[in-house]
Specification:
The complex is a heterodimer of chains A (192) and B (181). Chain A has 192 residues and is mostly helical. Chain A has a domain at 56-184: Up-down Bundle (Four Helix Bundle (Hemerythrin (Met), subunit A)). Helix content of chain A is 61%, strand content 6%. A two-stranded antiparallel ribbon of chain A has the order 1-2. The longest helix of chain A is centred in the middle third of the chain and has 22 residues, at 56-77. The radius of gyration of chain A is 23 Å and the shape is extended. The two termini of chain A are 36 Å apart. Chain B has one domain (6-144): Response regulator (Rossmann fold, 3-Layer(aba) Sandwich). In chain B, a hairpin with a 4-residue loop joins strand 7 (135-137) and strand 8 (142-144). In chain B, the strands form 2 sheets. A 5-stranded parallel beta sheet of chain B has the order 3-2-4-5-6, sandwiched between helices. Chain B starts with a strand and ends with a helix. In chain B, helix 2 packs parallel to helix 3 (68-75). Chain B is an alpha/beta fold. Chain B is built from 6 helices and 9 strands; from the N terminus they run ββαβαβαβαβαβββα. The chains are: A mainly alpha (192), B alpha/beta (181). The interface between A and B is large, with 68 and 73 residues. Strand 1 (10-13) of chain A pairs antiparallel with strand 9 (166-169) of chain B.
Chain lengths: 192, 181
């Protein structure tokens, strides 16, 4: 549906570029309605998401198991490219999903872990405790969710781990300005 | 006020994480969408893109085989037989500004940083449906106009140069076919 025929496409040629315009191919899905007839699709979607939430803890358990397995493999065989990628990917998925699943602090810790993996110049030289503290904290938050989150301990843990990781990364990247710039740049992730 | 008839839209969702695909499917269905196709890697997504011709693509960044960035670049081929203009929403855990720039330069239409929310997703879809941007083609870029706003106070060098534009009306396929007979 979303494709205009070639004759509808207008191309304006400039010296260095072309500007291509066409009638909005999706205009037919937009319908003007009275305010009284307007339903709330966002609210409906939030309700649908809430109905899924009973499964979130199990999903989170699967994600942290992946992380734990990836870390065990790294401890055994070192940071090969494949194992490094698996560890990063597992942490990255938790960073993206955990807040949706109700574990925002775990997301923050996973983000900190991702930054270490992405910006440490030599992963073999990163103190192993930096990894284990992050991974154990995520495991603890997920397995002990009720107690830790209700006491805001997990939020404080997340904040402190991030501080330790950022201090480490700022130090080891002091001669790598391109990494330092990224490390110090603010996140664009929506605030929970 | 405008309402989107989601039941007339066809979506392609590409994410290697089955939980995130389930969440996206749930959100899109609850918005009213009926046609939601899913792929778990970039290669499958590209195949499905050609086959199902979706109206909107929602893709993750990090995926096996080839990633969301490469998927966007493959869709944005001006000479391709498929539709190079479909809106692409990149939904990703990457949350650094430089990633937004890289995604934008690959032809991504909208960027949505995780954690996902119903409101964030709806707004991105509304934006691509109601406010499509013209496409720009240069030697190194083909995709939606990366300038979202006109800044009358801009003082820097003009990166797009050229005198008065020349309008090239694309001949219709029918006219092309007639002229070749």
């Amino acid at each position: 549906m979303a494709k205009n025929s070639a004759k509808d496409i207008e191309v304006k040629a400039f010296a260095t570029h072309h500007v291509i315009t066409q009638p909005n191919p999706l205009r037919k899905v937009l319908r003007r309605v009275e305010e009284k007839d307007m339903d709330d699709p966002v609210r409906r979607a939030e309700q649908a998401l809430a109905s899924l939430s009973g499964e979130f803890k199990d999903w989170m358990a699967i994600e942290v198991q992946r992380l734990s397995t990836a870390w065990t493999a790294v401890q055994k065989d070192g940071f090969t490219k494949k194992l490094r990628d698996e560890l990063f990917h597992a942490a990255h998925d938790i960073k993206g999903d955990a807040a949706t699943f109700g574990f925002p602090s775990a997301a923050g810790i996973a983000e900190s872990l991702c930054r270490i993996i992405e910006h440490a110049p030599d992963l073999e030289k990163v103190p192993a405790e930096l990894f284990t503290h992050h991974i154990n904290a995520i495991l603890a938050i997920v397995h002990e969710n009720t107690r830790l989150d209700s006491l805001s301990v997990s939020a404080e843990l997340s904040r402190r781990l991030r501080k330790v990781a950022d201090d480490y990364l700022a130090n080891v990247n002091r001669d790598r300005p391109e990494h330092l710039e990224v490390i110090l740049a603010p996140s664009i992730a929506p605030v929970e | 006020m405008f309402r989107i008839d989601f039941n007339k839209l066809r979506f392609l969702v590409c994410d290697d994480n089955p939980h995130m695909r389930r969440i996206l499917r749930t959100l899109l269905h609850s918005f009213g969408a009926r046609e939601v196709y899913e792929a778990e890697d970039g290669a499958t997504a590209l195949e499905m893109y050609s086959h199902y011709v979706p109206d909107i693509v929602i893709t993750d960044w990090a995926m096996p085989i080839f990633d969301g960035l490469e998927l966007a670049q493959m869709i944005r081929q001006p000479e391709s037989k498929g539709n190079p203009y479909a809106p692409i929403i990149m939904l990703t855990g990457h949350s650094e500004k430089r990633r937004v720039t890289v995604a934008r330069d690959a032809g991504v239409t909208e960027f949505l940083a995780k954690p996902i929310s119903a409101k964030g997703l709806y707004q991105r879809i509304l934006n691509v449906v109601a406010n499509p941007r013209p496409f720009i083609k240069t030697k190194t870029y083909f995709g939606p106009d990366r300038r979202r706003n006109t800044n009358s106070a801009y003082m820097g060098p003009e990166r797009r140069v050229g005198e008065k534009h020349e309008v090239l009306q694309q001949p219709s396929l029918l006219d092309k076919a007639r002229s070749s007979i």
